[in-house]
Design goal:
By secondary structure, the chain is of the alpha/beta class. Helix content is 27%, strand content 27%. A hairpin with a 6-residue loop joins β16 and β17. α8 packs parallel to α9 and α11 runs antiparallel to α12. The longest helix has 20 residues.
Length: 580
């Protein structure tokens, strides 16, 4: 029989800061549940002991009837999608169990460059949440086909990868450029690989030889929606599959679970608005969706904790074990419910019953505020002028759907008179105007929506975040865009043929993409905008993403920027009329 050394005995006899008793620990290694007391000293788990084992602690938490699991780790997300500053984001998501995130701030960096990323990192450091960062790889998202507010070279990215808190190259969205051997993207991925950092991917349905070429650059994850057979292809080649809500269906679950060995999986949020987080949850919501799709709860838990921690090279978390960081979630009821009652980050209680128990302050945005460098225009600014003879012409159109962000190329016939397209009463119109000090206005018809009279305008438009307006009349579009400009950026929905009624607005004065107001206030405004869009006729699982990705020129198939319509697959501009 062995006896502990003097040091070991001293360590065991030293008073602990906290004992969590009465609960069951869920092992992310074996999937088992076992009764145990979890003890915490400082920011670490100091012991996991059979219930009632003598050990002094200054404080106790009664976890009777609860399951003790590691804090949730989000390996791919964008804080800006919540429209919140890092501090407000932390407060609302910590309480739902998310104790660690890898954030790719490519929204605000496309607006304000390196300064914006430094501001985000500094703000994140002032939260109890572990906020790690990826340097955006595509600023602008599609070089040469759009104008953002900033541009990052491969040298810029190489330098920023060495900043404190940075652990990854953000999602490599311009996958077509990577596959084609584009010099800029080759330099970007090479810089990241030379530093040994994580390279995050974005390559919907990329397959075969093109997938091999993409993987060969060192990019080894994907969070986009793929056909089931492509999910399996990517997984068998060693790509870490990150499943967000739109990726979680029964076919994908069944296919993955039928494999001889389940590959590493991460559950991620990618883009969730503030109202969604407040009403439905964050990673806890994604976990429930995964269970409903057919994934066993213990598999879901591992995909929330251990696997993403390993992906991020955070070897101090992801399992309830002595010596690991005391990021813990106490869940009510059955594991499958993923219902957080108490959340600890670094040994401190930060959330109870879905609410933060500490005060979250946003700080000052300074030079990032009110970056909307355009003036409001009257209805004349929404006249669609073309260099075409009088008569009827076939115009390229974007067709949206109610499920995802895929935009199909379509056609519509419209009359032209006196160099102006007579579109009112015949189609919905989309207009993009540059807001970063450049000229650039582009129009296109939009199909797939049966909308009432009105319009929506927003500066939250992936990824260059120019001023995007969609409407049924020039007057309504002018009214919506004027509201957004007056707010210093944001989203506004108006109704009526003249846009006489502003039915919802969400000011986003921090770079035109964030608000420094409390999360509850922003969530209320976001919910109102969502409801207004749906009442207008914009039917979609995620109306915010459906609207804001019309300008995402790396996402198939036809998108619109401040320079042109873009054939995403060909990575080429196309004219307004069919054949041009």
């Amino acid at each position: 029989m062995t006896t502990p050394s003097t040091k070991e005995h001293d360590d065991m006899s030293e008073q602990h800061d906290l004992r969590i008793f009465g609960g069951s620990v869920v092992s992310t290694f074996t999937g088992e549940e076992f009764p145990a007391d979890v003890l915490v000293r400082g920011s670490e788990i100091s012991a996991v002991l059979p219930p009632g084992t003598p050990a002094e602690a200054r404080e106790e938490i009664d976890a009777t009837g609860m399951r003790i699991v590691p804090g949730f780790v989000d390996a791919h997300m964008h804080i800006e999608s919540a429209f919140l500053t890092p501090q407000q984001f932390a407060a609302v998501t910590l309480a739902r169990g998310t104790t660690t995130v890898l954030a790719d701030p490519h929204e605000i960096v496309n607006v304000a460059g390196r300064d914006a990323m430094r501001w985000m990192i500094d703000a994140g450091d002032r939260t109890p949440q572990t906020q790690l960062w990826g340097v955006p790889s595509c600023v602008p998202a599609l070089e040469g086909l759009e104008h953002a507010g900033a541009a990052l070279s491969a040298d810029d990215i190489a330098e920023m990868l060495r900043w404190p808190g940075v652990v990854a190259l953000g999602e490599v969205m311009d996958y077509r450029a990577v596959v084609a051997g584009d010099p800029r993207m080759a330099a970007v991925t090479a810089a990241a690989r030379a530093q040994g950092t994580i390279l995050d991917g974005h390559c919907p349905n990329l397959s075969g030889a093109e997938l091999s070429a993409y993987l060969a650059t060192g990019v080894d994850s994907d969070h986009t929606k793929n056909r089931t057979e492509v999910v399996l292809e990517k997984a068998r080649l060693g790509m870490t599959m990150m499943l967000q809500e739109k990726c979680l269906d029964e076919d994908v679950a069944k296919a993955l679970l039928s494999l001889p060995q389940l590959p590493p999986l991460c559950l991620v949020t990618d883009d969730l608005a503030a109202d969604h987080i407040v009403t439905k949850g964050h990673l806890d919501h994604i976990a429930r969706v995964a269970v409903a799709a057919g994934f066993p709860p213990h598999v879901v838990l591992r995909a929330l904790t251990w696997t993403p921690a390993q992906r991020l090279r955070l070897y101090d978390r992801g399992v309830v074990s002595p010596g690991k960081r005391a990021d813990l979630v106490l869940l009510r009821g059955e594991l499958a419910a993923f219902d957080p009652a108490v959340v600890l980050a670094g040994g401190q209680v930060v959330g109870r019953d879905g609410a933060a128990v500490y005060e979250a302050r946003s700080g000052e945005a300074g030079a990032l505020e009110s970056r909307v460098d355009v003036e409001a225009q009257d209805a004349d600014g929404f006249r669609w002028r073309v260099d075409l003879p009088d008569g009827t012409h076939r115009f390229r159109a974007m067709r949206v759907n109610p499920r995802d962000t895929y935009t199909e190329a379509a056609e519509v016939e419209l009359p032209v008179s006196g160099g102006e397209v007579a579109w009112e009463g015949r189609t919905v119109l989309v207009r993009v105007r540059n807001r970063h000090g450049r000229d650039g206005v582009v129009f296109a018809p939009l199909l797939g929506r049966d909308l009432e009279e009105g319009a929506v305008a927003t500066t939250y438009a992936h990824d260059s975040h120019n001023l995007l307006t969609i409407g049924t009349s020039r007057a309504a579009m002018a009214a919506a865009s004027a509201t957004v400009v007056a707010d210093g950026g944001g989203v506004a929905v108006v109704r009526g043929s003249a846009g006489e009624s502003v039915v919802a607005r969400m000011p986003l004065p921090v770079g035109g993409v964030l608000s420094a107001r409390p999360a509850a206030r922003v969530a209320e405004e976001a919910g109102a905008v969502r409801a207004a869009l749906e009442a207008w006729g914009w039917e979609h699982l995620n109306p915010f993403m459906s609207v804001s990705t019309l300008t995402l020129a790396v996402s198939p198939a036809l998108k619109i920027t401040d320079r042109s319509l873009v054939d995403v697959v060909r990575r080429a501009p196309v004219g307004a009329t069919v054949g041009s």
